[in-house]
Amino acid sequence: MLELTGVLLLFMVMGAIIAIETRDLLASVISVTAVGFGSVIAFFYLRAPDVAVVPIVVEVLVLVILIRATLRVGLKTFIGNRAFFGYLVTTALLVVIFLAGVMVIDGLPAFGDPVVARIAEAPSKVYIERGLADTGATNIVTAVLLDYRAYDTLGEATVLFTSIVGAVAILRRKARKKPSEPEADEW
Amino acid sequence: MHYALVLMLFMIGLYGVVVKRNLIKIIISLVIMETAINVFIIMIGYRSDGMAPIMQQTMAPEVFVRTSVDPVPQALVLTAIVIGLGVTAMTVSIAMRLYERYGTYDVREIRRLRG
Amino acid sequence: MVDITPNRGMTPIVKTVAGWVRGITFLFGLYIILFGHITPGGGFAGGVILALVYVLMTLCCGKQKAFEKLPLHWAAELDSVGAIMFLIIAWLGMWSILGGSFFTNYIARWNPGLPYHIFSSGTIPLCNIAIALKVAASLFLIFMLLVTTKVVHGPNE
What is the DSSP letter of C28? Predict the structure, then answer.
């Protein structure tokens, strides 16, 4: 019953619980990086090699960015949670959403049986059967990304560009009195 | 059972976004939610004892069609991961500016100060 | 090779090894981009590996070294060049002699190569290069911006 995916998901759940409950911000950032690397191993096991390379680098970047934002001299620490309609009501709401999600999951086929194998006219079957003949590429994921579904790739390029423009616009500021290091708008 | 574990990971992230007071913990919970969704989408397309959707030279096409996993969720998740990095970068830059302005990462203080 | 002055960045051992690893990793990233239609990988995976080389240089040798190799305004230009290249390749498919719609793979219709060869899949290798350029420049820009801007402490200081 226990196989590698189950063990990895258990590890990720434990890492996530540690990440949001510990009081030390550095430990919490490292735990969320561990959750990401657990997902990388899960991607390799789930036969998705070109998806698995990308979160490795993304987790390293997120780790360095979060450490840069959190570790600084004189950071005031505080404990406790928000009072958002009362603690018990929030937990009850989340349990209800979890049970609703479990009922939805019961309608899916079992793990290991792809969902689109049940559908007669699934596009995945067309892509696998005619991928090589239509595009000439033997990597069907690349053929799907850049030939059959190229609009999604264009959308992703647009969203990445917009998020960069947003981050630059937020961090830009006028020069202070003592600019001892180059600031965001001096290039 | 595996899908229930991924749903629990998503719920843990959602709990962190709703309940926690520290802005950095909220950003960390957003990252956990994105990771859970990416793993769930690829788990939907998995076939037991299948092979990756990359053709090899020494293989008959009928075998490939019969045993390969679904390539469409992998293409979708590939873009989703890079977009997740962009969203995290933007939220961290907002958090850095809020810290400069208010001196704290506590969302209750940030809401109350009118400065 | 690398500047192993011990007072900036990490120890000389780390800097020397990073200097060797840098070239091999860059070459590996280029390989994954160019052969993206045959082996697993493609534009996204190769682009993030190229960005990782500059992250390594920043972490080991300081940000001046990384800015020497790729200044920030060049990275912004490369980002836009990658996006425009992708759009031009897509737009060229709209001429009716080539295909008729926005994203058609016109090179595959005109001159399909043999499978498993590098010059085979039409516009897919060109789109891989454009996407990799865009992703690498974008991730470098995000990282440098968030890590090297000077943050002033709170309003009391």
Answer: H
* Closest Cβ opposite residue C124 in set A57, A72, A137: A137
The answer, as to whether pTM is greater than 0.90, is: no
Other beta carbons within 10 angstroms of residue A144's beta carbon come to 29
Nearest Cα to Cα of residue C146 among A185, B24, A168, B105: A168
Residues 6+ apart with CB under 8 A from B3: A105, A108, A111, B40, B43
Tell me the domains of chain B and their CATH numbers.
Answer: 2-112 (1.10.287.3510)
Question: What residues of chain A lie within 8 A of the CB of B72, using their CB?
Answer: 116, 123-124, 127, 144, 149
Residue A157 lies in a domain: no
Confidence of residue C134 (pLDDT cuts 50, 70, 90): very high
Domain span at residue A17 reads: 4-129
Asked if residue C5 belongs to a domain, the reply is: no
Domain holding C86, by residue range, is 12-148
- Flag if C45 and A53 touch (Cβ within 8 Å): yes
Q: Which residues of chain B have pLDDT under 70?
A: 112-115
Tokens of B65: 């069609």
Residues 65 to 124 of A: which have CB under 8 A from any C CB? 65, 68-69, 72-74
